Amino acid sequence: MFKKITPFFHKSKQRFTLLFKHVRHGNVRVFFICLFCATMLWFFNSLNHLQHETINYPIEVVYDTKKYIALEPNLRYIMLRVKGTGWQILWKTLSLKSEPIKIYTPSVISSNNSYLLTNRYEVDIKRQLSGLEVENIITDTIPIRLDKKIKRRYFLNINPFDINLKTNYRIVSEIEVTPKQVLLEGPESYLERIPNPFPVIIPQRNINNNFEKDVKLYFPIQNPDLISSNVKDVKIEFKVEEYLYKTTSLVVRLIHFPEKSGLTLNRNHRRVDITYAFRSKDIGKIRLSDFLLVADFKTFNIQDSTVVLFLKRRPDFISKDDISFKSKVKLDYEKK
Fold first, then answer.
1. Which of 117, 171, 195, 263 has its CA 20 to 30 A from that of 85?
2. How far is CA 282 from CA 34, 243, 317, in A?
3. Which secondary structure element, helix H or strand E, spans residue 18, and what is its range?
4. Is 82 helix (H, G, I), strand (E, B) or coil?
5. Average pLDDT along the chain
6. How far apart (Å, rounded) are the C-alpha atoms in residues 296 and 298?
7. Full DSSP string of 123-164
């Protein structure tokens, strides 16, 4: 087989070489102009013939945008098998003024369909595609997901534990949110998944100064752009202060102990460490005499010989929730 093909290539090569030599010695520019004109004549002549082509044609699904909203971008083109002259097909595919085929679907919601069957709209498609004969609609379905468009009012809420503060800093005031509520509009299925009150997320981290900023609302859903709000930002205000931690040892005072019981504190429990937190600005106000830690015999547990400790006195500027110490101490019989 290769022996038969080889002479053909040699002859073609010789002919091309002779033609190139001829053109090279002639006018190259005239040659290419003639070649271009011949190509264009062939192209325009072919456009006059009847042709069968597959084209992508723009389409628009029409629905009541005041009542419904598309959850996903709708299909923009459908594939059609058409018949017409080359000029007609070329004009339809290249024309910037071509109106898209409109498909009206008032019942897509009630039927709960997620797609449209194009064969149901064959008459409308053929009627709107004037100048060409539609032989076949290749695209058999048009995906579409619509949902009811609703409005719903949400109260705004901030969880203090979701605010990222610098270590040892605390919020020492009420958290002010302005406005208190927002009006959202969007797909019903999306708004139903948004909690009410709506949590506002503060993106700033390691906050160590009084906070007063506008925070953008963030909707934790798949397509947040489908939801519109009457406000884009909310103003958040609160105050923070640094807290210090200190541990000190206190002598435990005994109360309600019978004189002749022979019970007293274990020698390892006569002093107890307490840890407390306080504002850094109050560091000069703290006195050990402001604390009073007692062991109450009324809480004596005969099974493990323990009594409960109580903090009877503390500085006013230190919260009882900011003080920690062991809850029980062990008693021993006093040796005489």
1. 117
2. 98, 9, 8
3. helix 2-25
4. strand
5. 81
6. 5
7. HHHHHHSTTSEEEEE---EEE--EEEEEEEEEEEE--GGGS-
Q: Which domains does the chain have, with CATH numbers?
A: 39-144 (no CATH), 149-238 (2.170.120.40), 243-333 (2.170.120.30)
Q: Which helix (H) or strand (E) holds 181?
A: strand 181-187
Q: What is the Cα–Cα distance from 117 to 192, expressed in whole angstroms?
A: 30
**Model confidence pLDDT, tens digit, residues 41-50:** 555 555 455 6
Q: How far apart are the C-alpha atoms of 215 and 219, rounded to whole Å?
A: 13
Q: At 92, which helix (H) or strand (E)?
A: helix 86-94
Question: Which pair of structure tokens corresponds to residue 61?
Answer: 């699904």
Helices (H) and strands (E) in the chain, counts: 5, 22
Higher pLDDT, 127 or 242: 242
| Longest CA pairwise span in the chain (Å) | 136
Whether the Cβ atoms of residue 252 and residue 244 lie closer than 8 Å to each other: no
For 87, other C-beta atoms within 10 Å of its C-beta total: 14
Cα 90 from Cα 95, distance rounded (Å)? 8
